[in-house]
Amino acid sequence: MKISVIGTGYVGLVTGVCLSEVGHEITCLDIDSRKVERLNRSESPIYEPGLEDMMKKNIDAGRLDFTDSYETAMRGRDIVIIAVGTPQADDGSAELVYLNNACRSIAETMTNDMIVVTKSTVPVGTNEHVKNEIEKHHNGSYSVEVISNPEFLREGSAIHDTFNGDRIVVGGESEQAVEKVKSIFEPFGVPIIMTDLRSAEMIKYASNAFLATKISFINQLSNLCERIGANVESVAKGMGMDKRIGDKFLNAGVGYGGSCFPKDTSALSAIAQSVDYDLTIVDSVIATNEGQQRIIVDKIKKVFPDLENKRIAVLGLAFKPNTDDMRDAPSIKVVRELVDAGAEVYAYDPIASENARTYLPGATNYMDSVEEAIDGKDFAVIMTDWKEIKEYSPEDYAKSLTNPVVFDGRNCYGLKEIENTGLEYHSIGRPT
Ligand code: UGA
User: Are residues 284 and 320 in the same domain?
Assistant: First the structure.
């Protein structure tokens, strides 16, 4: 099938590349022409394992190309997938300006009847708005059907998730359009659930908010465990063995970050407010996470009340491993607070340092390895559970740091591993 994808951010690019991999003819559009040039050379603007190889293979096979022209992207296409960003507006709701621009351009350039699939995460009711917007700007020659197809992939494992997802959601009012869109995803071999437009839109927010709730729940319990002398890891293990609860997303830490959970929980709360309903559970999840993102600073200040001129190693900056994404990363708050308290920060992240420069104040020094970051520093703080950081030997901290103290915001080490290393180890929800 001939399909266009509008927007080459995380979701759009991965979707376009994976659909070409299963044999569809894909044109991806982005209005940034310099980005398009790079993409046509198989250069990915995002870090995602395996993506560039898959891009190259399908570009070479003539199934995948990139353009900045709507005329080119829309010519003779059966289906167009909208995957533009829906960032958070100042009031917490989703910003729809990019989506509206895409609707107008589609309306002005479509050359036949069209199925428009929205993959961007959008407030409930937006797909009906998409249909109206396109019809408003179109000259009436062709018909438009809209389908909601929210995305559930995770950064850093996006290709794996596309081919091994738990479900694909296809929501729409026209049975024919739903069937046609379902057929393009069938080669992924993932169960497909078909539903109405509004329920499909809601499934996405509900899923992300529920996962965020699991994380905030275990994070609050970790704070309680510390106060009553329990170990949150054992608690999570014991809970997770109950299949009704499940063992995923019960890792306590410094809170969730990234481009999705913070934005989608706020947007869901804003949706509820717009219909005069208080979504108290989600509001409390958001507040809990804001506190949890800086909990490590409280731990640090208990041990080192005066941070003036302290030289601190910060290991990991990205909001999670295997990504260079710094959006809403807990490290931003923590590094800022340490710098504000007069400390000097020496940070190491395997790939996010470049992006971190735009988020963090000038007082941060970027190091090239864990060794370099900790060498001669007063103490270390772990913010991201990169494999490389987890595999770093606990004994080596004691050798390199002036004070052998590590604050671990991701519980990278088992407590047994720390025994006899001479390290004073402060983690999350476990005995010190
Ligand atoms: C999340 C969802 O997992 C995807 O299903 C969804 O498609 C995506 O948002 C989206 O809406 O586009 P992502 O933000 O890439 O994916 O990352 P996750 O792996 O879900 O992690 C989110 C945050 O939660 C990270 O900061 C991670 O460190 C934190 N987390 C995760 C925990 O603190 N504890 C856990 O047990 C799990």
Answer: no
